[in-house]
Amino acid sequence: MKSRSAGRTIRHLSLAITLILSACTSVGPDFEPLLPEADTDWPIPVMQGLEPAAVVPVRWWEGFEDPVLNELVNEARSQNLQVEVAALRVLEARARLGIARGSSYPQTQVAAGDASYVSPSESELLDRLGIGNFWQYSLGATVTWEADFWGRYRRGIEAADASLRASVAAYDQAVVLLTAQVVSAYSAVREAEEQMRISRENTALQQRSYEITQVLYRNGEESELDMQQALGQLLGTQATIPVLETALQQARNALSSLLGQPPGYVDNILARGEGLPVVPAEIAIGLPTDMLRRRPDVRQAELFAMSQSAIVGLATTDLYPSFSLFGTLGVSSGGPGGTSFGDMFSSDAIAFTAGSNFVWPFLNYDRIRNNIRIEDARLQQALLGYRETVVQAAREAGDAIAGFMGSRAEVRILGDAVVSAQRANELSIVRYREGFSDYQRVLDSQRRLFSQQQRYVASQASMVQDAVALYKALGGGWEDRTSMPPIDAENIDMMRQRTNWDELLIGEAE
Prior knowledge:
single chain; alpha+beta; Outer membrane efflux proteins (OEP); 2 domains; 4-stranded antiparallel β-sheet; elongated
């Protein structure tokens, strides 16, 4: 009789499960992929040397053909602390996705056992009934499963999955920014070195001029004024060297920190090369639509909106009743009758219950609807944030193109200006020695030469910085990642010693 009743109960539960699963749906908005509006061409005319139709190289910094720079970028990408924090956030998001996926299975799974010794109080009635001290044993399991009738758990998985992919995009964006920062810091180091070289060369040049005026003054051929003017200009040029030494050390320290290392780490690496990076003659910039598809921050903004859309659906499920199935299975023995622990596994000791219930918080509708409104407002903010990201991306790319074209034209002009200033300085010294002009011409020509050389180096460095800004605006430099963002081996070992990570530290990120 008991087995027939159990069979009917199981059939009813199976029927209920089938009906629930067949009726499952997902409430709330379904996210549609966002298609950014972009022009088919850049808004400003592109000069020769920028190729809109070409594909932006993945490892764009290698176009500078500087082995030292390549080494620094590769080392920074593997050692930078902020980038590794971004990689750990990806790992965190993977674990959160695992939690969301686990919610689809029975939400309550409890196994419990009990052994207790009972000593009743002394009583004549209990003595007559033969009830004395005894042991009680029980062992059971309870399972509760809420059917995903309205898509609560599916929406949670959607939100967690979008958050995971957004964390990967954030990692890619961190790599893009780090690469640009390393190239910029390296350029600052080489610029300071070049400026220091120019200062020392001009110091030597002006030292010779000062010595000439000194000899002429002692021989009575020139006045003391020429000598003092030459000395003043020499000292002014020498004064630029300590400032440049400070700037150089600060730039080196910044570069070391980008590699996750203390000051002084990059000194030996930098000693293996010299000179500013040479900007490629041809730079591929692609088209605006390519830029928006490539940039990780645009992708991150879209995935954030996708996650928030799923959260709106998750909040909406609170408006509807939840349906749950539950069951318990247990065994027990012991008691006043004198049964033992071994009797717990006999058929008479087995008991089970099964059933279903539903919960409908209809009296909380006002609170639930306001919570949905909060999440919907956040979704709209995310959508507007995506549009703002697209607009800023287009502006950054346009500014970078304009800046690069301007700096390249300036470098070309200043290069000619330096050649002219060098020739003028040579002629002024010759005319002064031959007595055809006064020393003021020499002072002016040397001052202009030093100034033009300084401007030329600064302009070359600015062109490198503008090229870096252009590559950063185009969003390149992350595409060579094919799997989960890397984490330092020592940190992985440390984490495995603390926690069982299984396969979460291995495998694809998306």
